[in-house]
Amino acid sequence: MFGIYLKRELSRRKKAALVIALGLALGIALVITVNSVSAGMQQAQGKVLKSLYGLGTDMTVTKAQTAPKSGSSSRPKFDFDAKSDSGKTQSSDRVMTQGGQSLKSSLVTEVAAQKGVASAVGALSLNVVKVDGSFTQGKAKSSTSNSGQGGPGGQGGGTGAPQVQGGGASFDVNSYSVAGVDVTHQDLGPLATSKITTGKTFTASQTSAKVAVLSKSYAKTNKYKVGKTLKISGTKYTVIGIATPDSSDSTTDVYLPLKQAQKLGDAKNKVTTIYVKATDSKQIATVKATIQKNISGTTVTTSADLADTVSGSLSTASNLATSVGKWLSVAVLIAAFLVAALLTSSAVSRRVREFGTLKALGWPSRKVTRQVVGESIVNGLLGGALGIALGLAAAYTVTAISPKLTAELGSTGGGGMGGPGGGGPGQAASAAKNTVDIALTAPVSVTTIALAAGLAITGGLIAGAMGGWRASRMRPADALRSVS
Question: How far is CA 365 from the centre of its chain?
């Protein structure tokens, strides 16, 4: 009886049911769209962070750079012999550590022993500035002057001072980044964000081998291939592999075994960054506090700290989706619920004769209420289905368009999670901001769909509760008074 009457009443009031369902659908669709776009923002931000601090890295330990002493300078210095033969090529490399003060390698073991730390790996960040070119010596030439009173006949002549003509210098400056990698733990650290697409990676036995892995962009620009030789400060390294970053452009150009990088940078038993993986991702803040407490003078940076430095269109869109978007979706959803409740209550008011007659025939108030609530829940489910369809369509449209967002990473104030090679915020104070372009997607999770279904049922229940309360207060006498 309940089902038959429910179907008949919904068929009779198709327009009213459709209006209520569409109102709920719009609110639910907006919630799905905002949630999916917010999830896409989080994924985009995760890609940015992963490209900088390495896959599996939860935090890094660094030490802030101190101000240079009076009279000293950290700028590279180059000395060339200007008296060399004309056209003779001269070359000089200057290798400097990057990313803050150097830390003792023993600190890696000390950090790994802290409570909550699963593993810790050290890396050394270097910057190489290569200057090569040649001087060209000028030639002295004398000039003849015809002016003045000379000998007989008024003809004068003389030789002027010799002048140097031609000569000069032509030098090319090339700067690139080098990362010293612990070849025994490559799953954590600067090389963890890249895949070897040509050649091979380091082996555990190559701790002191003169081998190198190059980033794809650096190898392509400088025409390096596997098997060729790379020369840095007079030392030759054999290229064994080409690495392609998983996401975004690589911030490191050359990867060397850690011991070779330490030797190259005159930093024996030194590292600039310690990459840390926690045993529990939910306890990262606790592990950070423990490291800072037990190892003084260091800066611990987590992915959350680094996320605060992200600016650009990605940050702006994320803030809009988080604040304005969510509040707007909540406001629209509340409005949809209220409209559904008011429309249901209004529909009940127009059914005075119907409900009064049913009560006169013996229907109790609870049965009338159940009838109204049942109709409202069906309207809610219909609105939920339409809302999910609209929300999925909107999310698919965003993913298909894939608008480009730009993420700029600034400084975290003395040591960031940027990997060796100048990509991290720890170096942003002295270098240009690292900019990454990310394509936005809008993934819809099962949780979001479940939330939409729950909201649809909730909206139906709210509308049914108000309409049912109104219907339960009607008396059979109301039906008689409404008969014309």
Answer: 58
Phi, psi of 169 (to 5 degrees): -145, 145
What confidence category does residue 263 fall into, taking pLDDT thresholds of 50, 70 and 90?
A: very high
Residue with tokens 């996320």, as numbered in its chain = 307
Beta strands, E only, 303-457: 310-311, 404-409, 434-439
Model pLDDT for residues 104-141, shown as the tens digit of each residue: 999 999 999 999 999 999 999 998 888 877 767 667 67
Give the residue from 317, 316, 321 showing the smallest Cα distance to 33.
321
Of 304, 278, 309, the C-alpha closest to 291 is 278
Among 354, 332, 335, 355, which residue's Cα sits nearest to residue 343? 335
Bridge partners for 123 per DSSP = 273
Q: Where are the domains of the chain?
A: 2-52+313-481, 64-68+88-132+170-297
pLDDT of residue 310 exceeding 90 = no
The pTM of this model reads 0.58
Is 248 a residue whose pLDDT tops 80?
A: no
Q: Which pLDDT value is given to residue 420?
A: 42
C-alpha dihedral sign at 198, 201, 206, 210: positive
Q: Which residues pair with 59 in a beta bridge?
A: 276, 302
Instruction: Tell me how crowded residue 202 is: count the other CB atoms within 10 A of its CB.
Output: 24
Residues with Cβ within 8 Å of residue 350, at least 6 apart in sequence? none
